[in-house]
Amino acid sequence: MSCPICGKNTEPSYRPFCSRRCADVDLARWLNGSYAVPSQDPEDAERAEQEARRAASKPH
Ligand SMILES: [Zn+2]
User: Fold this and answer.
1) Neighbours of ion ligand 1 (CB under 5 A)
2) What's the pLDDT score for residue 25?
3) pLDDT, the chain, mean
4) CB neighbour burial string for 1-39, b if at least 16 within 10 angstroms, e if fewer
5) Considering only 9-13, 31-35, 52-56, which range has the smallest mean pLDDT?
6) pLDDT in tens, 11-32
7) What are phi and psi of 53, to 5 degrees?
8) Domain locations in the chain as residue ranges
9) 34 CA distance to ligand 1 centroid (A)?
């Protein structure tokens, strides 16, 4: 089995990676993927909250 990041032989202590560095690279890729979801953007959430308050204060 080889490291999925760089293809070197896997180190048992860092399986399935060859080193701490490659494990960190994989973790960073995974986190970047989840942070790409638009609803996770703090500015979008703030804007949505302001619009919700404005809509709630208007009499219908
Ligand atoms: Zn590696």
Assistant:
1) 3, 5-6, 8, 18, 22
2) 93
3) 83
4) eebebeeeebeeeeeebbbeebbebeeeeeeeeeeeeee
5) 31-35
6) 999 999 999 999 999 999 888 8
7) -65, -40
8) 12-57
9) 22
